[in-house]
Amino acid sequence: xxxxxxxxxxxxxxxxxxxxxxxxxxxxxxxxxxxxxxxxxxxxxxxxxxxxxxxxxxxxxxxxxxxxxxxxxxxxxxxxxxxxxxxxxxxxxxxxxxxxxxxxxxxxxxxxxxxxxxxxxxxxxxxxxxxxxxxxxxxxxxxxxxxxxxxxxxxxx
Length: 157
Prior knowledge:
The chain is of the alpha+beta class. It has 2 domains: 7-47, Winged helix-like DNA-binding domain superfamily/Winged helix DNA-binding domain (Arc Repressor Mutant, subunit A, Orthogonal Bundle), CATH 1.10.10; 61-140, Lrp/AsnC effector binding domain/regulation of amino acid metabolism (RAM) domain (Alpha-Beta Plaits), CATH 3.30.70.920. The protein contains 5 helices and 4 strands, in the order H-H-H-E-H-E-E-H-E. It has helices at 7-18, 24-31, 35-47, 80-92, 117-130, and strands spanning 67-74, 96-101, 108-114, 135-140. A 4-stranded antiparallel sheet has the order 2-3-1-4. A hairpin with a 6-residue loop joins strand 2 (96-101) and strand 3 (108-114). Helix 1 (7-18) packs across helix 2 (24-31) and helix 2 packs across helix 3. It is elongated and about 55 Å long. It holds the Pfam family AsnC_trans_reg. Residues 5-66 form the HTH asnC-type domain.
């Protein structure tokens, strides 16, 4: 379900995506409005589910998480019980930053952040001990070229 947002909403959302720690006064000044209407719109966007939550983005390498792996998972299991066990296993692992079920030859892709290859192997061993997986391919990211949490906010059409 999409929510109707106007240009002012888009500008507010862009500011929040850039730095959610900004004060309401700063955001209002940057978007050309006053504090109260900006606060009301942010509240409306939260209630509508457009704004899920506010958080901080940490620098993975500064925390010693220097290796990023993309893990391609193929399974021969497609029963609901297996899917639930896989979902539980993936959600329980803090190393998994993203998990997607795919269309095509690969069933799932995981984005995994760990300190090094040895830590990835420990993650892999734990995962396959919890759920039966037909085939796993791990791809090590050599360089992060772009990473953002900001969604495009241009009007569609």
